[in-house]
């Protein structure tokens, strides 16, 4: 069953940046982009690298290990070496707090 | 989890504040476009020298200058765009990768994926697909590397293989399978362009000879003297970039031609940092990395002295550049550690 869990304060994530958030043994990446806040799985689908040191470029996250890129809102793999999409997770902002739908 | 430790800052014990790293690594189109404009201006200026000296004995120095300006930045830009760091706009990055790889004469995606592998397994024997010479290096290896013919032969063999869809084990190891059709298409287009240039020359149109073929050949040794310094005489199979990789000091001209890649240790530690930000990165981590070796000429002169003495069976200790301990001997027989992979 889906649960909305508070992850962080919205102002903890700089504009055009992300943070890593771990919950229930799962790693998430939460982004503050020009199109708003989004969340995806936090680990690159290519070589199990955490994305939290990656660069946010517009609405794209670039993995720090091999430079593979994903579209943040859809999780779609955009350029090799990444070929498998990232899972995305719904995000809600309430009173300056970021909530993620998990489960 | 991957079953390997990639060679980078983490494996080398180098740290940098995450926010500062992201500031330094921020992407922009402007520095790349400014560089492109300066490169074009330098090509026009030195190309004009070739034009006005045609038919005189000044042609060869002019062509050497033009060839250096054509070849070294083409290599450097191709490298930077293979990383995807030259521009913020992806299409611009890929367009420049394609064009500069055409001059560098390597299929662009082969360039990208073998180089990704080189970063993941920097100077690891049997793993790094970009070890361009046997180590330890002797005089014949130096000569094969610096003339550019060894590299050209390798790149042309790769191009033909890709064009015919005959992918080697190394290609299959380092490349995502979905990229092969694009690589084959690129290789066929490149070969057609090179063939068209040859046909033009054979038909009596000599401008491609004066402005492309001969300058590219004359510029290759300068390009390769820059790239030779990156790992030569340093440690194989080390997880630390500080052991395997060399930075060196150079003049504004060297930094321009080589797109700041003289900061090579810093580049391998944080390959996501764009060329224009490498001096800032070098400053930020200067207390954690070895001192850069002396200038371009002195570093190369010392390397040349070492490889010559090694081939003559003499002492291989260099006066000042960094060397891995096993590279320094009092002479005698040389045991080969690694065979070139490109």
From TrEMBL, chain A:
Coiled coil: none
Cofactor(s) the record lists: [2Fe-2S] cluster
Domain of life of the organism encoding this protein: Bacteria
Signal sequence interval, chain numbering: none
Record-given protein name: Non-heme iron oxygenase ferredoxin subunit
Metal-binding among keywords: yes
InterPro entries on file: Rieske_2Fe-2S, Rieske_2Fe-2S_sf
UniProt cross-references to PROSITE patterns, sorted A to Z: RIESKE (PS51296)
A Pfam family per the record: Rieske
Species name: Defluviimonas salinarum
Domain Rieske per the UniProt entry, residue ranges: 5-100
Family indicated by similarity: Belongs to the bacterial ring-hydroxylating dioxygenase ferredoxin component family.
Keywords in alphabetical order: 2Fe-2S, Iron, Iron-sulfur, Metal-binding
Automatic annotation (TrEMBL), chain B:
Domain of life: Bacteria
Spans through the membrane: 32-52, 58-77, 185-203
Keyword terms of this UniProt record: Membrane, Oxidoreductase, Transmembrane, Transmembrane helix
EC number: 1.14.19.-
Fatty acid desaturase domain boundaries: 58-298
InterPro entries listed in its UniProt record: FA_desaturase_dom (IPR005804), Fatty_acid_desaturase (IPR012171)
Pfam families tied to this protein: FA_desaturase
One of the record's GO molecular function terms: oxidoreductase activity
Name of the protein this chain belongs to: Fatty acid desaturase
């Amino acid at each position: 069953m889906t649960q909305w869990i508070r992850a962080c304060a919205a102002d903890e994530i700089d504009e055009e940046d992300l943070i890593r958030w771990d919950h229930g043994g799962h790693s998430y990446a939460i982004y503050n982009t020009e199109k708003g806040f989004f969340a995806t799985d936090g680990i690159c689908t290519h070589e199990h690298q955490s994305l939290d040191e990656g660069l946010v470029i517009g609405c794209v996250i670039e993995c720090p290990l091999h430079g593979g890129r994903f579209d943040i809102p859809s999780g779609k793999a955009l350029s090799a070496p990444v070929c498998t999409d990232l899972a995305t997770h719904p995000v809600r902002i309430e009173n300056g707090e970021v909530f993620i739908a998990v489960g | 989890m991957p079953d390997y430790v990639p060679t980078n800052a983490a494996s080398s014990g180098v740290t940098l504040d995450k926010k500062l790293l992201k500031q330094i690594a921020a992407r922009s189109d402007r520095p790349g476009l400014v560089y492109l404009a300066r490169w074009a201006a330098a090509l026009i200026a030195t190309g004009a020298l070739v034009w006005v000296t045609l038919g005189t004995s000044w042609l060869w120095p002019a062509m050497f200058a033009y060839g250096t300006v054509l070849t070294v930045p083409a290599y450097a830009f191709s490298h930077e765009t293979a990383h995807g760091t030259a521009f913020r706009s992806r299409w611009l990055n890929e367009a420049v990768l394609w064009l500069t790889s055409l001059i560098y004469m390597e299929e662009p995606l082969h360039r990208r994926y073998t180089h990704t592998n080189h970063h993941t397994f920097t100077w690891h024997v049997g793993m790094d697909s970009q070890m361009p010479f046997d180590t330890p290096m002797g005089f014949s290896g130096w000569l094969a590397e610096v003339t550019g013919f060894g590299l050209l032969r390798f790149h042309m063999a790769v191009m033909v293989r890709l064009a015919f869809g005959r992918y080697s084990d190394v290609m299959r190891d380092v490349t995502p399978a979905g990229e092969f059709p694009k690589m084959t298409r690129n290789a066929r287009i490149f070969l057609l362009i090179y063939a068209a240039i040859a046909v033009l020359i054979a038909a009596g149109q000599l401008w491609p000879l004066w402005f492309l073929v001969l300058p590219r050949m004359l510029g290759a040794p300068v390009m390769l003297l820059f790239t030779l310094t990156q790992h030569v005489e340093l440690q194989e199979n080390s997880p630390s970039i500080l052991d395997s990789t060399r930075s060196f000091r150079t003049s504004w001209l060297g930094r321009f031609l080589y797109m700041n890649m003289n900061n090579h240790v810093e580049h391998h530690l944080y390959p996501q940092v764009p060329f224009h930000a490498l001096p800032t990165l070098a400053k930020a981590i200067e207390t954690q990395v070895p001192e850069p070796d002396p200038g371009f000429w002195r570093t190369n002169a010392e390397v040349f002295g070492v490889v010559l003495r090694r081939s003559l069976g003499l002492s291989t200790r260099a006066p000042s550049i960094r060397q891995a301990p096993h590279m320094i001997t009092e002479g005698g027989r040389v045991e080969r550690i690694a065979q070139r992979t490109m």
